Each structure stands twice: as C-alpha cells, then as structure tokens.
C-alpha cells in the first residue's frame, strides 16, 4: 500500500479528515470528497519536472477517494503506482509489490467475482490494443508526429471500440474523485472512463466535459490517454470493493445487463 494512502487512512481514523457522511454540498462543488482534496492540498507536496510532465518522487500520480452514499462500506482510498523515475530498481520493486497486493485481493474473491474480474482484465487489454491501433492509424493517415497525449478519438470510434470489447462495465458504489498529490483533480483515463460507472462531484463532471470538443469535421472528439490496465487507482479501488465479504456491497453487474 502506498505510504500516502496509509497517511490518508490514518488522518481519517484520527479525525484529521472530517467525517463526510451526510455532509452538505461544499461551495466549491466537491461535495463529500472535499475533505480529502483539502487535506492533500494542505500537505503541500513538491513536484519535479519529468519526461511525462510533473511528478512527485516516491508518490503516486493519482490518488482516489470514494465515499459511500447508499451502502455502509468504509470509505475507499487507493492509488496508482508510486513513482521513482530516478531509481529504476526502486520503481520496478514498487510495481512488483503493488501487483502482488492487487493479486492477493483478486485471489481472496469468491469464484464468481474472481472470474468476472478476469473477464474485465482481458477486455481491458483488448480495449487498450484497439485504442493503440486506432491511434497509430490516425497518425499514419495524417502523416503526423503528434504526441500520444494529444491524440483525439471521435465519439463514433470510441463507441465502436466499446462494442468490440464486449464487456459489461462495473459500477463502483459511492461518489469518487481522483487527485494528484497536491489535491488537483485528475480526470479518468479513457480506459477507466469506459470500464467503470461512477458518480463524481459536480465540479468534476464540469471539468470532465472539457475533454470533449468538435474537430474540423464537426465530430465530437475526446482527448484522453490510456494507461496500463492495472496501474490505476480505480482498478485498486475496484479490487478492494470486490474482495469485501458478507456485505451488501456489490461491484459486479447482473449478467443479463
């Protein structure tokens, strides 16, 4: 578990992060996840420039807070991989350790849930392969050297890719947001946008809409990246919820949907 996740859990346990159940909407539009944002902003972590943009040494790029609103499970706090770009051996060790933890959560699930997770893993890999193929074809057709993060996918291409993957998205019960270590909102990547159905605060919904625009052909296009299938904070939160036993919490959608 990432040290910053442990820090947030400890702050929640000690009451440093105020109780959020039943809290009214905050004036900034972050609602029940606002205390987690405020706490991270107060830590004032320092970032450094890197080849893929700014990063926080030893910390994950993305931290998730999920607050239940219709169920009684505990608040979920998870994170992406901790980053150590300057020390490859430490970075690799951290990723191995995290994957072992996620695998342990997977193995602890019931047989039906275990198989459903496997299905989602395989579909996620197909989705990423399809996205990369479409991106490469787009750049070839346009004879472009556009960077990966600047690739725009049309709404029609996105819907076609979703249909080809043939998987039912998973619902995460509660309202969630993902943050950088300094408390800046992090929109979901295209993969998580597709495979997880979530409720996000009003402010987050507004910011997510900015990733849609119209291209020169008047087509709706989305500007999002796709990361590794198991490296994100949403995937870790999904496995935490999936491994809950004897609870009303269910992140597995009915098969007939």
Please tag this protein with its features.
4-stranded mixed beta sheet; alpha+beta; 257 residues
Write up what this structure looks like.
The structure is a single chain. Residues 143-149 have low confidence and may be disordered. The radius of gyration is 19 Å and the shape is globular. The two termini are 34 Å apart. The longest helix has 31 residues, at 111-141. The protein has one domain (3-242). Helix 4 runs antiparallel to helix 5 (155-165). The protein is of the alpha+beta class. The strands form 3 sheets. A 4-stranded mixed beta sheet has the order 4-3-6-7, with helices on both faces. It has a 3-stranded antiparallel beta sheet with strand order 5-9-8. The protein contains 8 helices and 9 strands. The protein has helices spanning 3-13, 34-43, 88-107, 111-141, 155-165, 190-195, 202-209, 233-242; strands at 48-50, 53-55, 63-67, 76-79, 152-154, 170-179, 196-199, 212-214, 220-223.
Give the helices and strands, then pairings:
Layout lengths: L2 H11 L20 H10 L4 E3 L2 E3 L7 E5 L8 E4 L8 H20 L3 H31 L10 E3 H11 L4 E10 L10 H6 E4 L2 H8 L2 E3 L5 E4 L9 H10 L15
Parallel strand pairs: 6-7
Antiparallel strand pairs: 1-2, 3-4, 3-6, 5-9, 8-9
Helix pairs in contact: 4-5
């Amino acid at each position: 578990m990432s040290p910053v996740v442990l820090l947030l859990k400890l702050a929640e346990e000690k009451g440093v992060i105020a109780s959020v159940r039943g809290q009214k909407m905050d004036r900034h539009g972050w609602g029940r996840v606002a205390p987690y944002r405020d706490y991270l902003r107060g830590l004032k972590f320092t970032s450094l420039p890197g080849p893929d943009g700014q990063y926080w040494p030893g910390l994950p790029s993305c931290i998730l807070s999920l607050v239940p609103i219709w169920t009684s499970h505990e608040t979920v706090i998870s994170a992406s991989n901790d980053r150590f770009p300057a020390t490859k051996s430490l970075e690799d060790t951290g990723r191995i350790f995290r994957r072992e933890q996620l695998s342990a959560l997977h193995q602890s699930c019931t047989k039906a849930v275990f198989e459903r997770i496997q299905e989602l893993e395989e579909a996620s890999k197909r989705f990423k392969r399809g996205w990369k193929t479409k991106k490469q074809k787009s750049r070839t057709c346009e004879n472009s050297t556009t960077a990966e993060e600047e690739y725009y996918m049309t709404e029609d291409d996105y819907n076609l890719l979703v249909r080809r993957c043939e998987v039912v998205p998973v619902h995460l019960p509660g309202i969630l947001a993902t943050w950088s270590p300094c408390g800046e909102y992090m929109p979901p990547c295209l993969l998580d946008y597709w495979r997880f159905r979530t409720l996000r605060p009003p402010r987050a919904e507004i910011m997510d809409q900015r990733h849609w625009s119209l291209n020169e052909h008047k087509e709706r296009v989305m500007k999002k990246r796709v990361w590794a299938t198991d490296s994100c904070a949403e995937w870790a939160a999904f496995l935490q919820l999936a491994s809950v036993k004897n609870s009303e919490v269910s992140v597995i959608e009915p098969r007939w949907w």
